[in-house]
Write a structure and sequence with these properties.
disordered N terminus; globular; mainly beta; Maltoporin, Chain A
Length: 703
């Protein structure tokens, strides 16, 4: 297995090998991003970080899963489950459990993919990343422009711009294990309207037993410019998934089960696992330039999500049905002041009506001191209202010094309606007669209302050392109100209504720029973050609340040419994530003691991604990629460990004629035996085994 110690050597070799300059469009100082300020801004003037996956990378990757794109950005780790399933980290350990989906803000064109109170770990799956124009990632607490859920950072998948001339393209890909992918787009500008219609679909048999999926995505975008100069950007997106899900492979003793051959890693211990999911979203952004030169922006939006799946990762194997419908609006007023100052003030508001129902089909049973009953565990509805005024201001303090200040207030209100008997008995209110006398595991609060008020301040400084180099510092706070599942899907030893908003305070310093003589572009950041009111589940599924954690790390992104045809890109993360509070084992329950200073489980210290590119002719590129995941603990008590892994991927895309191109990929080129995800839970080692060497070939036609 490759060692992360080789990374400095790779960087050094890249530096001494460069012989030419990159072109102007490749320089980091010319890169523009939109997520940091909700409008296009030079990355050199940002008091913070933004990682970006470009259109060219998206087309080259032709990704099956969004992890293949995001692992190119430092600070990101994404562990795949089966099908579209995933667990994510961003300046964090890989988070799981009810609150994990609320630790990150998932957006498409600046609109959250889900309501803040109804997060889901798989939330990024619905984004149309296969046909995106770019993907932007802000690591660490979001700015004052974004509120609840941007605790560890945010992801913004940006739709592809319409073309100025007629564009029609279709792409077909075939792969191992009966994989078929179809992508297509048509775009043009007709008068004052510019439009793009994009779709993608995939069907696959699945490389594990009784797995596979069918998925479809559609995006329709219309950009309209009125005679008075007003602009309108309207986007409709739809997503549908029907998936057979293979769960963990498990062993009570074997900590390298994923190395035991194809029969072991392909087996599906949960052949009845599935996930059915659909969503639709509609938004329209109106920008109006006022007589004084300022701009008013109003973006109303609608969304609807519905999902049903089996909780194959929990002992109950219960069926969960959830969904929510939202209507909301984002407003902002952009002011350009004399002296180079900018101010944005606005108000975001949203109303959501959601539900959740959880039902256990298997017979009632008693294990690990817990009683899990057959039938309904939870059945509730929640109405959620959020109102969030904010101000974001940029001040030109001196010729080369710029400050960013911001403040946001988030008011969140829940109206919860329980549809079954309250308490810890059965759904009809009868006692929990399972095993020894006691309560059932699942506690259902009575009807109630809950309100949370949170402030998100930000202060940043940017100093331009030169036109092509800048340094910055950033002090910010991120938060999230408790998820509805945190509050209303609770266990029998939890206090009802005791949770407070999770909060993270972060200090970050960084530098970015380009050394033009050799074309080396760099982006380096270091951060220190402390979090409080953190809720999670231990290795036996017990809820732990009011935890504190500490996070610190260094992130590096480098790119440069190697001669006229070759180039290299490097992303590297070194981070340490630890508990900052003590938690005793629970009496009369299988559980663990967690000690302040213990490393948080599923948090590799070292993550690296190195890409060697070869532009072997015009419009043709090959890329060799090395992806390294370091070792990490499997449980909060730091008793078991995963050794880490290294993967090598090879991909090529070449233009044959003006309208015809072919592409191919070999993933896991060296046939590494590894686990996409490893943990130790409920007394077992559990693994999502990594896929062996596999292939894809395809062709695209433009006409």
């Amino acid at each position: 297995m490759y060692s992360a110690r080789k990374l400095p050597l790779l960087i050094a070799l890249a530096s001494v090998s460069a012989t030419t300059m990159v072109s102007a469009e490749d320089l980091i100082l010319d890169e523009f991003v939109v997520t940091g300020t909700r409008s296009e801004s030079s990355i050199m003037d940002l008091a913070g970080n933004t990682g970006k996956v470009t259109t060219e990378e998206i087309d080259l990757l032709n990704a099956d899963h969004i992890s293949e794109s995001l692992l190119r950005i430092p600070g990101v780790n994404l562990q795949r489950g089966n099908g579209v399933e995933m667990q994510l980290s961003l300046r964090s350990p890989v988070l799981t459990g009810p609150g994990a989906g609320g630790a990150f803000l998932f957006m498409e064109d600046g609109i959250p993919l889900r309501a803040a109170s109804f997060g889901n770990n798989q939330g990024l799956s619905v984004a149309h990343f296969e046909q995106a124009g770019s993907i932007e990632v802000v690591r660490g607490p979001g700015s004052a422009l974004y509120g609840s859920n941007a605790v560890h950072g945010l992801f913004n998948v940006l739709s592809r711009d319409p073309s100025s001339e007629l564009e029609r393209k279709i792409d077909l890909t075939l792969g191992s294990d009966d994989l078929y992918k179809l992508r297509g787009t048509i775009s043009d500008t007709v008068g004052a309207h510019a439009y793009r219609f994009s779709f993608s679909g995939v069907t696959e048999h699945g490389w594990r037993d009784e797995s596979g999926l069918d998925q479809q995505k559609v995006t329709i975008r219309d950009d309209y410019t009125a005679e008075n100069g007003d602009s309108f950007k309207t986007i409709f997106s739809a997503f549908n998934l029907n998936q057979e899900t293979a769960g963990f492979i498990t062993s009570g003793t074997d900590n390298e089960l994923y190395k035991r051959g194809q029969k072991v890693i392909e087996r599906n211990e949960n052949p009845d696992g599935y996930r059915d999911w659909w969503s639709v979203r509609l938004s329209s952004r109106w920008d109006h330039e006022m007589d004084n030169g300022n701009t008013l922006s109003i973006t109303p939006y609608l969304r609807s999500n519905k999902m049903e799946f089996r909780q194959h990762y929990l002992p109950s194997k219960a069926i969960e049905e959830n969904g929510h419908d939202s209507v909301g609006v984002q407003t902002a007023y952009y002011m350009d002041l004399e002296g180079g100052h900018k101010v944005i003030v606005g108000l975001d508001a949203e109303y959501t009506d959601g539900y959740l129902k959880e039902t256990q089909e298997r017979a009632s049973y008693f294990k690990f001191g817990k009683r899990r009953q057959q039938g309904i565990h939870y059945d509730y509805d929640v109405e959620a209202i959020s109102i969030s005024p904010f101000i974001h201001a940029e001040w030109q303090l001196a010729d080369k010094l710029r400050a960013t200040t911001g403040l946001r207030f988030d008011h969140t209100r829940y109206d919860y309606d329980n549809n079954v008997a309250a308490g810890t008995g059965l759904a009809d209110g009868s006692p929990c007669n399972i095993g020894p006398p006691g309560e059932c595991l699942y506690q259902r609060p009575a009807d109630r209302k809950d309100t949370f008020n949170d402030w998100s301040p930000k202060l940043g400084l940017v100093y331009r050392l030169a036109d092509d180099h800048s340094v910055y510092s950033n002090l910010s706070r991120g938060h999230r109100a408790p998820q509805t599942t945190d509050l209303y899907r609770i266990q029998n030893k939890q206090d009802i209504g005791a949770l407070d908003s999770e909060r993270a305070d972060s200090l970050e310093i960084g530098a970015r720029g380009t050394f033009e003589p050799v074309g080396l572009s760099y982006d380096v950041a270091a951060y220190y973050m402390k979090k409080k009111n953190f809720s999670f589940r231990d290795s036996f599924g017990n809820s732990v609340t009011d935890a504190k954690t500490k996070h610190r790390g260094i992130e590096v992104s480098l790119s440069m040419p190697l001669g006229e045809q070759f180039d290299i890109g490097v992303s590297y993360t070194h981070a340490l994530h630890t508990y900052d509070s003590d938690h005793a084992a629970k009496p009369n329950l299988a559980s663990q003691t967690i000690t302040k200073g213990d490393e948080i489980d599923t948090a590799p210290k070292n993550i690296a991604n190195v890409r060697l590119g070869w532009n072997f002719k015009t419009d043709s590129r090959a890329e060799l990629e090395w992806s390294h995941i370091g070792n990490y603990y499997l449980d909060p008590a730091n008793t078991e460990k995963y050794e880490g892994h290294d993967l090598v991927n090879l991909r090529v895309n070449t233009q044959i004629t003006k309208g015809f191109a072919i592409h191919a990929q070999v993933k896991n080129l060296l046939d590494e035996e590894y686990a996409d995800r490893a943990d130790f839970a409920f007394g077992d080692f559990r693994f999502f085994p990594g896929r062996d060497r596999n292939y894809e070939v395809g062709a695209s036609f433009s006409f």
